[in-house]
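U., I forgot to send this yesterday:
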Amino acid sequence: MPRRQSGLQPAHLFGALAFLAVAGGGFWYFSRQKEEGFSGNKFSAAQYQQNYIGLRGNKYVVTGIITKQLRYAPSSARLFSLAVTDDGASEPIDLAVLIPPEFSSINIQTGQSFQLKVLVDKDGLLRAEDIRKS
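Result:
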């Protein structure tokens, strides 16, 4: 009767390499930094209050807390009051933000914090282009 070969088999080596490749790939995937928020220019509520004309046509990233729903229409845009606190400011500034109908599936409630990518339109109104809960 032939003796069984003992020791390291080629199948063992391939199995160990496959395991290391899967483990390394998983570690790389889960250890990557996730994008925390939007990239873009930070919105200044104080500058907006002083002179919104200079901000028209530009896009900004603003973070704030929904304080009130000002207008609701199920088939059109919704208007909310957003409390924004600038760096170094003691009091938040309330701003009106128009949420277009394409974001109607997002449940926006008073007291929730959101990060929005906004466009300052020609009339000085903030129009949301993208929304994330923060």
